TrEMBL record:
SUPFAM superfamilies: Clavaminate synthase-like. This is Fe2OG dioxygenase domain-containing protein. Transmembrane segments: none annotated. Residues 159-266 form the Fe2OG dioxygenase domain. It comes from the Bacteria. Keywords: Iron, Metal-binding, Oxidoreductase. The keyword Iron applies. InterPro entries: BesD/HalB-like, Oxoglu/Fe-dep_dioxygenase_dom. It comes from Aidingimonas halophila. GO terms for molecular function: metal ion binding; oxidoreductase activity. Belongs to the iron/ascorbate-dependent oxidoreductase family.
């Protein structure tokens, strides 16, 4: 065996070992994807269950994705990193953009909410952390891509926002907003004592159509189209958050949730305004990316 082949085999062994150590492979056989002419009915049955959830309302819950015997380690790891969070104490609209006084006062762009929680940025998370090992694991990424019915997904090129821990201290909430990315993967690493439900409005907008009237109704308190989901520690969630406005309700006790950002292209970068507000800093990469216009012409 040549040096390159031996190196690749060793890497594959490490990647598989990561899955076996941390993932509930009995329920989620991430390591069993077929190659070539092989068939793996159990893998594709699992993928199809997730796909059906996503096709329904853009949200899929994979309960007990993390093995029960590493739940405590997962929680402790995120608790140790939580003090590194940057806390944003701002008033933000659902698009995390500036106010536009030329619009009517009840326009969603002019609806600002108090923002009271923080994020541990990607560049502060150690390479050997469980969440980073999962985030960069090719088998895990391939499973996520299959669930999303995408041929391939990429890590964010964003050096700050690709992998983050959302830190919600006691009695805080994450207000209504849309995601920069079309989809997001979340891993609950510490459930609060009570509250902290994930609430969302399935597909309230679409490319080329902001649907401001429907967004306004939700912001004004009409929750007829709002769905609510409770996540436990070790649960994995796939969510199409660019088109579905969402929030996290007020919680009692600290709530920690890791956000794993992937994209259909290898050059995904958060907007300048959003990154500065949420993480307190930007890089030259963010400035350069701001000069490129989004293809879907959506806010945020």
């Amino acid at each position: 065996m040549g040096t390159n082949a031996a190196t690749e085999t060793a890497k594959q062994d490490r990647d598989i070992d990561t899955l076996r150590r941390f993932v509930n492979l009995s329920d989620y056989p991430v390591d069993k994807r077929p190659s070539g002419e092989q068939e793996s009915h159990v893998y594709w049955e699992t993928v199809e269950r997730v796909r059906n959830q996503l096709r329904g309302d853009g949200c899929a819950l994979l309960s007990n994705f993390i093995k029960s015997d590493v739940i405590d380690l997962l929680r402790e790891e995120s608790e140790e990193l939580a003090p590194e969070a940057f806390y944003s104490d701002n008033n933000v609209n659902p698009y995390v953009t500036k106010d536009d006084p030329s619009l009517p006062e009840d326009h969603p762009i002019r609806f600002f909410q108090h923002y009271t929680n923080g994020f541990v940025a990607r560049d502060l998370i150690p390479d050997d952390a469980i969440i980073k090992r999962l985030y960069q694991n090719p088998y895990f990424m391939r499973f996520i891509a299959d669930c999303l019915e995408e041929p391939v997904i990429y890590e964010f090129s964003d050096p700050i926002a690709g992998l983050v821990i959302n830190v919600m201290p006691d009695d805080t909430e994450l207000p209504w907003h849309f995601d920069t990315n079309e989809f997001i993967v979340s891993l609950m690493t510490r459930r609060p004592q009570e509250g902290g439900e994930f609430q969302y409005c399935p597909n309230i907008r679409e490319p080329g159509n902001e649907n401001f009237d429907a967004v306004r109704e939700v912001l004004q308190g009409n929750h007829d189209r709002v769905e609510s989901l409770t996540l436990n520690t070790g649960d994995l969630q796939l969510f199409k958050g660019r088109y579905s406005m969402h929030r996290v309700a007020s919680a009692k006790g600290q709530r920690l949730c890791t956000l794993l950002g992937y994209s259909k292209t290898p050059d995904m970068m958060g907007s300048l305004e959003h990154t500065r507000k949420i993480y307190g800093r930007v890089t030259q990469q963010h400035i350069d990316a701001e000069n490129q216009r989004r293809q879907d012409n959506l806010m945020g």
